[in-house]
Amino acid sequence: xxxxxxxxxxxxxxxxxxxxxxxxxxxxxxxxxxxxxxxxxxxxxxxxxxxxxxxxxxxxxxxxxxxxxxxxxxxxxxxxxxxxxxxxxxxxxxxxxxxxxxxxxxxxxxxxxxxxxxxxxxxxxxxxxxxxxxxxxxxxxxxxxxxxxxxxxxxxxxxxxxxxxxxxxxxxxxxxxxxxxxxxxxxxxxxxxxxxxxxxxxxxxxxxxxxxxxxxxxxxxxxxxxxxxxxxxxxxxxxxxxxxxxxxxxxxxxxxxxxxxxxxxxxxxxxxxxxxxxxxxxxxxxxxxxxxxxxxxxxxxxxxxxxxx
Length: 309
What we know:
Residues 7-132, 153-271 form the VOC domain. This is VOC family protein. It comes from Flavimaribacter sediminis. The chain is an alpha+beta fold. The chain has one domain (8-304): Roll (2,3-Dihydroxybiphenyl 1,2-Dioxygenase, domain 1), CATH 3.10.180.10. 17% of the residues lie in helices and 36% in strands. The chain has helices at 18-28, 91-100, 165-173, 227-240, 298-304, and strands at residues 8-15, 32-39, 42-51, 60-65, 78-86, 107-111, 114-120, 126-131, 153-161, 177-182, 185-189, 198-203, 217-224, 248-249, 253-259, 265-273. A hairpin with a 2-residue loop joins strand 10 (177-182) and strand 11.
């Protein structure tokens, strides 16, 4: 069993309109844009990162906004919901705020003893704000969100699968423990995690497979402290039979990827070097940062990308 995983690092999704995406996360949810860069494989498309003040692993939602992308089709083999932790008692404040902003799909419920507010992002993606009374992580307060209501980071994520068995086995191998089952949802928790340490598996054996598009989660990333821990995880996964990519430098972390039995793309990302490697913390996310190989194309890339506040 792996002991290097610390919880979630980030969740990366796809969007249609970069401006709407930026407004939703920085103005509606009050998160901080901690990096404005481009897709490593498609430099004409932004890669936007939102999180707490420093972009702490476990708080970062990232997006590829493709202007002409078709909407995704929900189904199995995907992360169907990403959950953010908020302080106890903040749910009603958030409900009023989201109603005022015209946010779709508002639904209050309770899962595993925690009150939640579920809603939809601008591309139809599924989110929930989950009251987490014992979450002591620092928060970022932007766009008028009060200290006692601000998002602390992820609490976890929910995956929709035809068969949860193989993915459950993988999560156990990664150090997660199965805690309980309610309403057909099986919960896994990483003991001693970074706060973003809950994964729920929902079995939908007769549901169609998801089709990726705007609003779909592209991959879900798990955190390890450093490159040495990542290499240990990579070797263990390879020895177990998973097809794992070589280590890839993503400027702000190093990454490896592998496809799970249920179809979800997993990444294992390092906590180092962080988002302040090329920007002072006070100015994160302000300037367009490009991977080194794209610097000679800066003028062309900047002319193509839509402006963002």
